[in-house]
Amino acid sequence: MSSPEYAPRLSRRPGFVFVRAALRIRQIYAEALATVGLLPNQHAILSTLDELGPCHQKELAQRVVVDQGDIVAYLDGLQHNGYISRERDPKDRRRQIVTITDAGRELLAESDQVLDHIEADTFSVLSDRERAQLTRISTRLYDGSDAAGH
Amino acid sequence: MSSPEYAPRLSRRPGFVFVRAALRIRQIYAEALATVGLLPNQHAILSTLDELGPCHQKELAQRVVVDQGDIVAYLDGLQHNGYISRERDPKDRRRQIVTITDAGRELLAESDQVLDHIEADTFSVLSDRERAQLTRISTRLYDGSDAAGH
DNA sequence: TATTGTTATACTCTATAACTATA
DNA sequence: TATAGTTATAGAGTATAACAATA
User: Fold this and answer.
1) Does the beta-carbon distance from B144 to A131 stay under 8 Å?
2) Considering the entire predicted model, what is its pTM?
3) For residue A19, which of B58, B2, B40, B45 has the smallest C-alpha distance?
4) CB A25 under 7 Å to nucleic chain C
5) What angle do CA B144, B146, B150 make, to 5 degrees?
6) Contact of A14 with B134, CB cutoff 8 Å
7) What's residue B148's pLDDT?
8) How do residues A59-73 score in pLDDT, each as one tens digit?
9) More exposed terminus of chain B, fewer Cβ within 10 Å: N or C?
10) What is the DSSP letter of A8?
11) pLDDT value, residue A9
12) Is B123 in the A-facing interface, judged by CB distances under 8 Å?
């Protein structure tokens, strides 16, 4: 049974079809990350921290594209489990310097393996060419919507 | 500034890039629909009702892919504003038959115009060929993830 | 069907503390 | 200095949506 049967007119909207598929993919990813105890945003935070090195919460929030007010709770959870550490910046004591720990790097490696597996499975219905197309088109849409001021 | 700069490693994951773009598109759609007083799920409900004709809440929930428990609140809102009517099915009085009203059809036409406008704008960064590719790939992913039991 | 509650995410508003610039 | 303005975090509250359990 193909999806257009459920809502023929909506299925003619590229935006609707796009969003509907992505929400399902997101759910699959969230379930996979839950097996290692991470929320999707927490995985994005660990991944970004690992790549960029220690940084302040504000910069981290901007890069991960999470609200500055909401990142506190994500970091609280990560810190509680020892995956990150927070220290006051001696040069500006308002700021917290967030650093990924060894345990955080281990968990990140584990969760990336889980995601690699899930991703390979989820995208197995697509050819390499189609995956490249999807990535390119998605990036263009994201950047384009950003430029439009949203 | 291109999006990969924010999170280089995550941006190499097709799933992440896909979901990130779709969430932004979804937000743009939600804001557009808010101007006519509709939630995205309410628009999907009206669109489906208009296309399929009167049907029971359970079938409606299945087609729109909304939880049967959650659809009650969406329908309450639509009924309060006169966009739908609910009547007990005389053949099975446990069931409610949901019907879109003339006011509902008017609002649907208006909201579809809004969406057409927003959609043209959002996808203007893509060629016709790319839009077709995106729709085809998204549909394949959605159906594929469904077959995988998610 | 409907209700209640939980979770994830995103957004708004406010509070506190600490920094910066200037009178 | 003293004051005003800004910034970084933190917390509370709200809204949408998906889901589970139950009446």
Assistant:
1) no
2) 0.90
3) B40
4) no
5) 120
6) yes
7) 53
8) 999 999 999 999 999
9) N
10) T
11) 83
12) yes
